[in-house]
Amino acid sequence: MNQQILDLASSYLQAAVAPQAGAIDRDPVALKAALTGLGDRSLLGLMVPQDWSGPEVDIGTYRAFMQLVARYSGALAFLQTQHQSAARRIASSDNEALKSAYLPYMSNGEVLLGVGVSQLRRPGPPLVKALPVEGGYQIHGLVPWITGFGLFQEFIIGATLPDGRALFGLVPLRKTSNIAFSEPMELAAMTSTNTVTAVIRNWFLPQQQVVSIKPADWYRENDKKNVLHHSLFPLGCARAGLDIVENTAKVKNLPFIGDALISLNRELTNCDRAIMAAGPRDSFDDRLELRAWAIDLAVRCAHAAVAVSSGVANYSDHPAQRVYREAMVYTVFGQTTAVMEATLARLISKNAQ
């Protein structure tokens, strides 16, 4: 665990991000400033190898960092993880020229990239297709979800080849004659992230911009392999909810608030430890249950924050209201059918942990 990196991140997030969390949730300019702050501290490409000017942290540090950001700002956590994901994809690419062109500039935020790949997990006919042509690929289709319009310069698109394999390549995140973007979506939370859809018509993706080509169904298998990755965000959100409960307990002289805080904090600690200890040897079902537990905790801890805040929690700019909305986002963030089923199974279970 790289404690120096985590201390640097924690200091910045507490001093500069937490006091502005409400504005960061609503205002793209405030969000961009918060993202720039992470880049100024070389925290935007944590898994980038040192050979490419990255810190190349261990997985434990990476997981702890993701929780930490989600604790102080859901919008910042949501935005920066897109860039971190793009950096990891390029770092694992066989395209050495692409690595040289992008990786040295990703940790400090000089280059900012998003991703538009979630359509690959959707069943049915492919939403985005890639047709091999001389020198590269012709891309066309609908990308239903891209975060960071106006904030990122390019994004990694996921497209399906005629043989079913998945192609990943870099595409501009700006309007061109072949790419049209929607207006930013009116989301319930994290509106500042400027999430859009894109319609792509016969965009030529040169071979030089190809990040990777993966086997058919690779994305679904990767979702199963990394089912716990998205658990880090609800864990951070749950901690944010308990921060509000703890601060309220200091103001309201009500012993039952302290009792609830102790109970929820104990459960959150146990869930956190179980997720951090889980590995590839644990069954998919066991890891799926941990994911559902983290989601459940985020919602309950956010609900606790609303309850102790009383009527003021209904104000749209109240911290409890923001955290409650973020818990909703993390319920469906990276959701698969299996995650949906596990989430509902936990909700109706009489034997919650």
Describe the structure.
Helix content is 50%, strand content 15%. With 353 residues, the protein is of the alpha+beta class. The protein folds into three domains: 3-105, Butyryl-Coa Dehydrogenase, subunit A, domain 1 (Orthogonal Bundle); 113-215, Butyryl-CoA Dehydrogenase, subunit A, domain 2; 226-348, Butyryl-CoA Dehydrogenase, subunit A, domain 3. A hairpin with a 5-residue loop joins β4 (154-160) and β5 (166-172).
Return the average pLDDT rounded to an integer. 95
Rg, Å, rounded: 20 Å
Number of helices: 12
The chain-level structural class is: alpha+beta
As a percent range, the share of strand residues is 15-25%
Number of strands: 8
> Biggest sheet, strands in spatial order?
1-4-5-8
Name of the CATH first level of the largest domain: Mainly Alpha
Looking at this structure, what is the CATH superfamily of the largest domain?
Butyryl-CoA Dehydrogenase, subunit A, domain 3
Helix content: 40-55%
Number of domains: 3
Distance between the termini: 28 Å
* Biggest sheet details: 4 strands, mixed
CATH architecture assignment of the largest domain: Up-down Bundle
The secondary-structure element order is HHHHHHEEEEEEEEHHHHHH
Instruction: Name the overall outline.
Output: globular
Poorly predicted sequence stretches spanning 5 or more consecutive residues: none
CATH topology of the largest domain: Butyryl-CoA Dehydrogenase, subunit A, domain 3
